[in-house]
Amino acid sequence: MTAISVERLDKSFGNHAALRDIGFEIAKGEMVTLIGPSGSGKSTLLRLFIGLTAADRQSHSHVRVLARDVQRQGRLVGARREQRRRTGYIFQQFNLVSRLSVMTNVLIGHLGAMPRWRALAGRFTRREYDAARRALARVGIEDLAEQRANTLSGGQMQRVAIARALVQDAEVILADEPISSLDPRSAREVMEILERINREDGRTVVVTLHQVDVARRYCRRAIALKKGRLYYDGPISGLTDTRLQVLYEDAGLDEL
Ligand code: ADP
Ligand code: MG
């Protein structure tokens, strides 16, 4: 069963080719790292998966997520919303509503899309609260439910974002540099949670990472991009030091 399939994907910004002729498939239940120097196209690729950006019009690109062609979704709001619900998106700059409580931020996952926050009060059922509480327990922060999101540490915020994806019951979790602004310990905890929801629930996880050692510890497969092209796709063990050197040859040393 395929979770994500990409064929002949081209994406340009003006006359700058951000992605060129990308193709791969990710099976349901895989945990894959997307790796490469900054500017190689990782975020653009993840954004394509949730329809936040579109492939080039004149191309023969296909991007399918959970069997839906995300480039040709049509205008049916319900269908789009359902597709968004099935795909959880977690990024570096924690996508929480800072003045709302942790609980409310997680409950938002039930809505499948970001609502106008004013309309939130009294909107959720007992069952939805229970599900949110279970999700918070799963990521280890049930005691923070009533705190405002902006009082949390970076690692705690990422856990809230993951709890929201759990409440959404997202089948695919896309995480764009979820640990890049975290201290090593929080980073490890967030990676362990992602690894656990992959292993225990069979959710597909695609995570962009800068740290190759972290990728090696948590992901079996790596997809590497270099200047918008597919540079490597295979077992992470195949991403040898020699290959990594070539992958990062034009990047600053601090990126490795
Ligand atoms: P990465 O996530 O690997 O660092 P990105 O996907 O953010 O790379 O960017 C890939 C390339 O596309 C870069 O050259 C970047 O400058 C360019 N790019 C990304 N988003 C935009 C945008 N909205 N407008 C113009 N150029 C963009
Ligand atoms: Mg990026």
Automatic annotation (TrEMBL):
Keyword Nucleotidyltransferase belongs to the record: no
Cellular component annotations (GO), alphabetically ordered: plasma membrane
Membrane-related topology note: Peripheral membrane protein
Main subcellular localisation: membrane
What are the ABC transporter domain coordinates in residue numbering? 4-252
Localization (cell):
Cell inner membrane
Q: Does the keyword Nucleotide-binding apply?
A: yes
What UniProt keywords are attached to this protein's entry?
Answer: ATP-binding, Cell membrane, Membrane, Nucleotide-binding, Translocase, Transport
MF annotations from Gene Ontology = ABC-type phosphonate transporter activity; ATP binding; ATP hydrolysis activity
> Which interval of the chain is the signal sequence?
none
Q: What is this protein called?
A: Phosphonate transport system ATP-binding protein
- Source organism per entry reads Halomonas ventosae
